[in-house]
């Protein structure tokens, strides 16, 4: 009773085919097709699959199943990928061992015997699944169909969100279907749809019911003849355009009339009631499960082998049941299953669920205790209303879900166990664990599932059940977990307080493994906040206790914190040695994130010390070693390389090192990615791109206390405002950044860098104030410069060569801001300091400023040499804005730059004005020289043998060309820009 003709859906199919064509062209996307039950979503998906195969794409498909909330992890993905395992697809074998091992936990047979960790992060499982799809898409385009997302488990929903953010250039299209009429207000799929609604890579398609005309085409396809108008009208009135309802109405009677019951539900049941008693009994058992394998049906049906075989054949022949996979049975339409299930009496349902649960329990006791079997047993015990069995089964299924990293399902099952706890006599004996342990495990699952707020609530409930005096170490570890939850919620002060409260539970001199864990976490958090002295003290104590108690994980974490803190305080060799020790421990224990963190911190310590080229080599070494690690570690190392290459002046390679834009970038990785983009854009002079990157950081950084992000963001915000001629905005950025870093840390390196940029802003402000003869503005710039130089000198006192170079630049900017003596000498010193560090960009900037300062002393030869050097460096870097500034200075001052000289303009042969950057004629230059010397219009006329009125006209033209408002400003510009050989008279 299904039409062989594909009816209607022209616009929807066209949109999906367009998405498929884009995917074939390496622009992946995700499409979710919604519609009420039976409206034709699966038929549309089948038609798309046919087009995909004709286009040479591989089609993978899987169905979500209704088996309780969050109890069957990754069900559609496993269905889609299991054929690859059976076929021994080379794409699976080509996966990195770590990813193959992670995938083996949920899809046995992939790992090739590799042992999988019990606590591999779910993100690694997602990475493995995505890697499979990417590998397949490299061979041929891939269409992944996932049906019935309204029943999806949380792991599948999370993966949908993950892959939607992660797809970049894969030849991949993912299409999911869901029943829109199943989505109640708090349905877990709703947030996913809301998030994808604003995603340019996603399409949300709502499938309407058939029109009368389309229903007529459907009936014609079924009957193989054009239907009569009255039949179309009759079926349309009863089905209201629902494709499945129309099929079922026609199946109950080809004329669409007769003794049909008044409701469609009765019409559907009529088909069931036509079957034999044995067939109806089998349908009732199958209605209790989305799909049941043959062995399970045999175990519960109570029929002889021949009787069962005949009953199953009858249900299949009636087109009510279809085979699912190799050895399972399920209803052809979910609505048919629902009708049969709803027709059961409450007592019948309870008894049948209990029988199914016992049959599955026998399998578990026989050794088949995988996540899917245990989840199914838990579902049936709960549906049977046997609360003790439901509690035991929920705990058992949760532990099985934990082993395959299905943390959302684990959380849901533990939450069910907690809900049953007070309803069961002696729950500890039934569950096999104490109440506190159950709460801790549920909290751990919440943490891994990305729900820190729920983790906090569960841990606080656990505190109510624990006697601190009786078990202080256990309480301390609970507080350590609570601290992690608070930190994830950006409640950093509360997180630190909880760690301190936990440490206070230990007696003086305690050297337990638990205390080492808390101290190592405290040291790490202090290190991230750049509270280096506190981090050092906590880490040293943690290391001593960890070694005494044998807590290797805490020892490695504390060594990382101590090494980073010492390195940032100047003891680089010791810091690197300790960090390498932490790397060895992390490798020994298989802690991937700790390994990546060690590589990153070793490189950072070397870079902060001015050993940037060594830092680059370490980052490359770490990238090679971590090539099979989660993408966060790999991308962080690549972004570190981009930073070091930028400092070393290889901006082309720096750009290549920055990972491609990816929607999976989030948190700190996303911020670091934006920092890398903004830094390179500012260096090159692309202010629009810099504004875009910094704008995306503004909100995230606003409440943050991590100097590694607060510092670069504030520095670049100030520099961008300075270049845009917004000194007040630049000053606000500097003040806010320094206040926040000083408040939350002792990160002297970033305080020095921020204050130095602040002095650059005051250099501009002081110079502009003197040009305008604005005494008030000049005094304000001097006042701010005095405060900033003192802060810079103090911060740089105990730091390394990078801070010394920053201080040298700051001293030169201070001289520019306050009109102090010998600025050119200071700029020479700054350029030399940066050159010794192998950082050509700040060296080029310093040489440009040196050339400006030399021009004020009439040292044209020295200025030409400095400008030539600066120009050569800027051009090699690709710093367009700096090239423009240097060429403008050279043109204004008529400097001969030799090979580095700017190319002549088109106006160079068009008269005398071509030699002057402001378009001044030789006569106007003579007038400007006298203006700069303080001559009046009458004196100018007398000296140059012209009328006073003519001199006045010349002066007006000069003011307009120089874009200044007064003779005084014109004199200052002429003096500063080298337009005359005469010093201004003030």
Sum this structure up briefly.
The chain has 986 residues and is mainly alpha-helical.
Features:
986 residues; mainly alpha; Rossmann fold; Arc Repressor Mutant, subunit A; three-stranded antiparallel sheet
3D structure, described in words:
The protein has 48 helices and 8 strands. It has 986 residues and is mostly helical. The chain has 7 domains: 10-208, P-loop containing nucleotide triphosphate hydrolases (Rossmann fold), CATH 3.40.50; 213-260; 272-344, Arc Repressor Mutant, subunit A; 346-432; 450-510; 674-883, Serine Threonine Protein Phosphatase 5, Tetratricopeptide repeat (Alpha Horseshoe), CATH 1.25.40; 911-976, Winged helix-like DNA-binding domain superfamily/Winged helix DNA-binding domain (Arc Repressor Mutant, subunit A). Strand 3, helix 7 (154-166) and strand 4 (172-179) form a beta-alpha-beta unit. It is elongated. It starts with 9 loop residues before the first helix and ends in a 10-residue tail after the last helix. Mean pLDDT is 86; it is low at 258-262, 901-914 and 982-986.
- What do we call the CATH topology of the largest domain? Serine Threonine Protein Phosphatase 5, Tetratricopeptide repeat
Quote the distance from N terminus to C terminus. 101 Å
Task: Pick out the low-confidence regions.
Answer: 258-262, 901-914, 982-986
Helix content: 55-70%
Shape: elongated
**CATH class group of the largest domain:** Mainly Alpha
Largest sheet: 5 strands, parallel
CATH architectural type of the largest domain: Alpha Horseshoe
Number of strands: 8
Average pLDDT over all residues: 86
How much strand content do the residues show?
under 5%
Structural class estimated from helices and strands: mainly alpha
* Overall radius of gyration: 37 Å
Neighbour order of strands in the largest sheet: 2-3-4-1-5
Total of helices: 48
């Amino acid at each position: 009773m299904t039409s062989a003709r594909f009816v209607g859906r022209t616009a929807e199919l066209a949109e999906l085919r367009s998405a498929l064509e884009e995917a074939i062209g390496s622009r992946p996307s995700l499409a979710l097709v919604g519609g009420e039950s039976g409206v034709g979503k699966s038929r549309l998906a089948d038609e798309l699959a046919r087009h995909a195969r004709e286009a040479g794409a591989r089609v993978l498909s899987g169905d979500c199943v209704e088996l309780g909330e969050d109890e069957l992890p990754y069900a559609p993905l496993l269905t889609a990928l299991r054929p690859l395992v059976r076929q021994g697809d080379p794409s699976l074998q080509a996966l990195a061992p770590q990813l193959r091992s992670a995938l083996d936990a949920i899809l046995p047979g992939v790992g090739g015997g590799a042992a999988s960790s019990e606590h591999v992060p779910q993100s690694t499982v997602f990475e493995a699944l995505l890697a499979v799809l990417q590998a397949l898409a490299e061979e041929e385009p891939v269409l992944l169909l996932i049906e019935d997302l309204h029943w999806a488990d949380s792991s599948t929903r999370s993966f949908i969100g993950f892959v939607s953010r992660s797809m970049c250039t894969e030849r991949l299209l993912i299409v999911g279907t869901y029943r829109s009429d199943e989505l109640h207000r708090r349905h877990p799929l709703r947030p996913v749809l809301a998030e994808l609604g604003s995603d340019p890579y996603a399409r949300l398609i709502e499938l309407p019911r058939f029109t009368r005309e389309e229903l007529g085409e459907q009936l014609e396809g079924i009957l193989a003849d054009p239907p009569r108008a009255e039949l179309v009208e009759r079926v349309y009135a009863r089905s209201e355009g629902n494709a499945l309802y129309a099929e079922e109405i026609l199946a109950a009677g080809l004329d669409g009339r007769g003794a049909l019951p008044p409701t469609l539900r009765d019409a559907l049941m009529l088909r069931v009631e036509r079957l034999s008693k044995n067939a109806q009994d089998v349908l009732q058992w199958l209605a209790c499960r989305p799909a049941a394998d043959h062995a399970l049906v045999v175990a519960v049906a109570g029929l002889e082998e021949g009787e069962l075989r005949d009953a199953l054949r009858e249900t299949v022949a009636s087109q009510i049941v279809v085979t699912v996979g190799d050895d399972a049975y399920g209803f052809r339409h979910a609505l048919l299953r629902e009708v049969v299930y709803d027709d059961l009496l409450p007592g019948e349902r309870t008894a049948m669920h209990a029988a199914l649960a016992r049959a599955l329990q026998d399998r578990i006791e026989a050794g088949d205790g995988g996540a899917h079997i245990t989840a199914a047993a838990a579902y049936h015990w709960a549906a049977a209303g046997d609360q003790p069995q439901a509690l035991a089964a929920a705990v058992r299924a949760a532990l099985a879900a934990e082993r395959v990293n299905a943390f959302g399902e684990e959380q849901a099952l533990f939450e069910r166990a907690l809900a049953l706890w007070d309803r069961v006599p002696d729950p500890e004996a039934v569950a096999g664990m104490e109440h506190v342990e159950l709460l801790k495990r549920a909290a751990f699952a919440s943490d891994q599932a990305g729900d820190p707020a729920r983790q906090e609530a569960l841990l606080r409930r656990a505190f109510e059940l624990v006697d601190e005096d009786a078990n202080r170490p256990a309480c301390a570890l609970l507080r350590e977990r609570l601290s992690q939850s608070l930190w994830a919620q950006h409640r950093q002060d509360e997180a630190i307080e909880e760690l301190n409260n936990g440490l206070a539970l230990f007696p003086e001199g305690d050297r337990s493994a638990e205390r080492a864990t808390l101290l190592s976490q405290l040291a790490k958090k202090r290190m991230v906040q750049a509270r280096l002295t506190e981090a050092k003290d906590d880490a040293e104590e943690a290391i001593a206790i960890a070694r005494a108690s044998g807590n290797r994980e805490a020892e490695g974490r504390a060594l990382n914190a101590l090494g980073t803190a010492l390195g940032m305080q100047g003891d680089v060799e010791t810091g690197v040695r300790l960090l390498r020790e932490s790397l060895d421990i992390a490798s020994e224990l298989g802690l991937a994130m700790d390994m990546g963190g060690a590589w990153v911190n070793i490189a950072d310590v070397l870079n902060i010390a001015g050993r940037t080229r060594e830092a680059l080599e370490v980052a490359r070494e770490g990238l090679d070693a971590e090539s099979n690690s989660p993408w966060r570690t790999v991308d962080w190392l690549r972004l570190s390389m981009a930073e070091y290459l930028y400092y070393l002046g290889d901006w082309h390679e720096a750009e290549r090192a920055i990972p491609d834009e990816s929607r999976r970038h989030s948190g700190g990785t996303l911020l670091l990615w934006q920092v890398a983009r903004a830094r390179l854009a500012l260096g090159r002079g692309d202010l629009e791109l810099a504004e875009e990157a910094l704008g995306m950081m503004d909100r995230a950084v606003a409440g943050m206390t991590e100097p590694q992000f607060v510092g670069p963001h504030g520095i670049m915000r100030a520099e961008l405002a300075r270049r845009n001629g917004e000194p007040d905005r630049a000053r606000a950025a500097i003040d806010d950044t320094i206040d926040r870093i000083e408040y939350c840390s002792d990160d002297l390196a970033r305080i020095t860098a921020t204050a130095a940029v602040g002095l650059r802003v005051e250099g501009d402000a002081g110079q502009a104030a003197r040009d305008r003869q604005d005494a008030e503005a000049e005094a304000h710039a001097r006042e701010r410069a005095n405060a900033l130089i003192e802060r810079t000198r103090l911060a740089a006192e105990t730091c390394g060569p990078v801070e010394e170079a920053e201080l040298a630049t700051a001293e030169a900017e201070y001289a520019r801001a306050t009109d102090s003596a010998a600025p050119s000498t200071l700029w020479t010193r700054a350029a030399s300091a940066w050159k010794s560090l192998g950082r050509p960009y700040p060296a080029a900037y310093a040489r440009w400023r040196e050339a400006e300062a030399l021009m004020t002393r009439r040292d044209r030869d020295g200025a030409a040499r400095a400008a030539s050097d600066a120009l050569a460096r800027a051009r090699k870097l690709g710093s367009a804005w700096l090239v423009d500034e240097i060429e403008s200075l050279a043109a204004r001052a008529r400097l001969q730059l030799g090979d580095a000289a700017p190319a002549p303009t088109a106006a160079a042969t068009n008269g005398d004005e071509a030699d002057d950057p402001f378009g001044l004629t030789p006569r106007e230059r003579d007038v400007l020289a006298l203006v700069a010397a303080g001559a009046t219009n009458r004196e100018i006329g007398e000296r140059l043998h012209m009328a006073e009125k003519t001199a006045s006209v010349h002066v007006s033209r000069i003011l307009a060309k120089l874009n200044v408002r007064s003779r005084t400003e014109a004199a200052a510009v002429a003096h500063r820009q080298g337009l005359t050989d005469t010093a201004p008279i003030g």
